[in-house]
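Inverse folding, one chain.
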């Protein structure tokens, strides 16, 4: 079994409260030793991490595979993401992504053996859902809720989500029974002990209604900074502070987006002349003049969205950072770029490390806890999902997934060691 030693890097592992200069010994897919100095005379490949930060691979709580799972899986490691939560709530070539793969089971089979580990979440929507090609296909009547969740568990789906409900205003779907539906769905998700991730629809009112409906039950609210972009993010955080059963996350970019031409949000921002396409390679921006001839994904900037996302990323009450990636790599790249930029603003070294540690916690151990998966930390016996962060040059040139080098010297190695991360009761 192959052995590797990562030497002399600065380890930041919030899941084990370990910060400082350490060596890591890896055998096969697991970490077998973490010490300040490890010496082996022979038989191990040495990876020199001097001057770099060793951190657990990022766990991204929302990745939409707009250009197929295989396509995005080869982009994510460059953004530090070794375990995305893939949500097939988008379209590919005009049809729902699940249909592209020939059904849910066939899509799940593709998730094994990629460049990254893949956790999965599939939405359950109200029976009167309308206004979105994919979400309407995921609508379930009340009498079928238990059966649908049992099907998810049988297939090993990690979580329910992203459930989109227009609780407080415009969302990607329309429904007249959102609050009642959430109440019933929460009852079932708690009974089966499966995480439930919710998009509340735009506005502070949606967050408030979701919290009230939860009534002490466990619930995760997605990208709160973007959701309340027109309202006070401080009021949203105050609501969350009084409800410890609720977890939440935020983007770390200035753009929101969608893969649907019929999304209410896309149509709203298109009327303002603010829907754009972004080139995945150069990140150049072009305003879209005709939605009928344009090809998704579409991007737009909500009012105050970037300011809110920074506040949430820094807040102790917001648990996680996610990209809400749409399948072309753009939002994941923005997330990493902005993380580097924000940390590197800081001059004092000890303050910089504290800030980086906060961000790493929100990208590793916290999302692992939300999903109840065994990832996001680097203790002995853990899976070796590891990044070497070059903070000075703002890049990641080495990524290990299950102990195997997926990115080495800034390039894909072609190895596909990723596992499908399944529901764990």
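Residues assigned per position:
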């Amino acid at each position: 079994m192959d052995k590797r030693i990562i030497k002399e890097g600065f380890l930041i592992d919030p899941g084990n409260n370990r910060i400082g200069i350490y060596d890591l010994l890896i055998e096969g897919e697991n970490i077998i030793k973490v010490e300040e100095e490890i010496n082996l005379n022979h038989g191990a490949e040495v990876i020199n991490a001097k001057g770099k930060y060793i951190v657990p691979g990022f766990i991204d709580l929302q990745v939409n595979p707009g250009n197929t799972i295989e396509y995005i899986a080869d982009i994510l490691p460059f953004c530090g993401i070794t375990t995305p939560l893939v949500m097939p709530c988008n379209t590919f070539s005009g049809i729902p992504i699940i249909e592209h793969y020939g059904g849910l089971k066939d899509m799940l089979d593709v998730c094994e053996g990629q460049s990254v580990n893949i956790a999965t979440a599939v939405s359950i929507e109200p029976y009167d859902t309308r206004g979105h090609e994919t979400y309407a296909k995921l609508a379930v009547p009340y009498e079928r809720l238990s059966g649908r969740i049992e099907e998810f568990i049988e297939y090993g789906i990690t979580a329910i989500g992203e459930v989109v409900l227009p609780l407080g205003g415009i969302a990607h779907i329309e429904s007249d029974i959102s609050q009642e539906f959430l109440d019933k769905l929460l009852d079932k998700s708690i009974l089966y002990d499966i995480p439930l991730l919710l998009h509340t629809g735009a506005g502070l009112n949606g967050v408030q209604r979701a919290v009230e409906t939860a009534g002490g039950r466990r619930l995760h609210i997605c990208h709160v900074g973007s959701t309340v972009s027109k309202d006070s993010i401080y009021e949203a955080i105050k609501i969350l502070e009084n409800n410890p059963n609720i977890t939440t996350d935020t983007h770390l970019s200035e753009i929101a987006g969608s893969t649907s031409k019929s999304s209410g949000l896309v149509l709203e921002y298109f009327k303002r002349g603010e829907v754009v396409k972004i080139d995945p390679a150069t990140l150049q921006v072009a305003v879209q003049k005709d939605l009928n001839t344009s090809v998704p994904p579409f991007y737009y900037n909500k009012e105050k969205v970037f300011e809110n996302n920074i506040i949430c990323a820094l807040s102790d009450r917001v648990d996680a950072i996610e990209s809400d990636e749409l399948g072309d790599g753009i939002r994941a790249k923005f997330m990493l770029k902005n993380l580097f930029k924000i940390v590197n603003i800081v001059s004092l070294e000890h303050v910089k490390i504290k800030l980086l540690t906060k961000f790493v916690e929100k990208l590793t151990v916290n999302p692992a806890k939300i999903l109840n998966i065994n990832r996001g930390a680097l203790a002995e016996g853990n899976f070796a999902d590891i990044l070497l962060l070059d903070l000075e040059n703002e890049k990641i040139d080495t990524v290990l997934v299950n102990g195997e080098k997926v990115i080495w010297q800034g390039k894909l190695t072609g190895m596909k060691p990723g596992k499908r991360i399944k529901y764990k009761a």
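The longest helix spans residues 330-345. The radius of gyration is 21 Å.
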